[in-house]
Amino acid sequence: MFLADEGMMDVWDKITPQLLSILLTCIIICTFCIVYNVKIRNYKEDKKLTGFLVLTEMFITKVENLVVTIMGKAHRKLTPYIMYIFMYIIVSSVVALIGIEPLTSSYTVTLSMAIVTFIGIYYYGLRYQKLAFFKRYYNPIEIIGQFVPLISLSFRLFGNILGGSILLGLLYASLIQLQGNIFWPSGPGMDWDNKLNYWWAGFNIFSVISLPWLHLYFDLFDGVIQSIVFSMLTLSYWSGAKNGEGANEGKEKLER
């Protein structure tokens, strides 16, 4: 029994904070989709829409309009993927509010997301431009520049989320050290038996008062902004590959 417990502890120790965030984020998104599917199937026209269905329908409509505006009506089927990108980034940022490391603070995650966008660029380029898509590579600089979307998307998302996490971590450490020096100057080695001082030093009142507001910005607001930026850049890269780099690109978007 003891060996089994040790084995479970070894497995648990190998789980990174980002992996835990990925699992929790996927569970939340799947639960949300299942609940919506059940509610929309059981909905009757003679009844009013619940608040959950209204908000979900608004979200779907907004994302669909974004996809149609950038890619055209023929590519409306991309809406579920863009919705998942939105939810994947936003939910992982909201999860950080309960103390779990956001999954986008791992470069492996952001790079994987950027690779999907990078592959999509070649898919739409070859599908609509055929071999003419490779004409731009006659310029050697373009050969190197083709990797700009991959690097830009992955590092932008990774850097913004990780930067916020590092800043909050430094603030937590500073405020904990500050309160420890004020209420527990002798340190744990000399005042270990004084349970009241020990508890008071562990309950950091400075961080409780000041940092929740920063969490709302770095974890919630910044997460929403990054999800919008990543999704719009993905659609823009795909649209550029589909329509080419001609001067009529703006006109085509207006016509759509």
How far do the termini sit from each other? 66 Å
SSE series: HHHHHHHHHHH
Fraction of residues in β-strands? under 5%
Oligomer: single chain
Summarize the amount of helix as a percent range.
Answer: over 70%
Structural class category? mainly alpha
State the helix count.
Answer: 11
Low-confidence stretches: 1-5, 246-256
Question: What is the makeup of the main sheet?
Answer: none
Estimated radius of gyration: 24 Å
Structure description:
It is a single chain. The chain is an all-alpha fold. Helices cover 78% and strands 0% of the residues. The protein contains eleven helices and no strands. Helix 3 packs across helix 10, helix 4 runs antiparallel to helix 10 and helix 7 runs antiparallel to helix 10. The longest helix is centred in the last third of the chain and has 39 residues. The chain is flat. The N and C termini lie far apart (66 Å). The N terminus and C terminus are likely disordered.
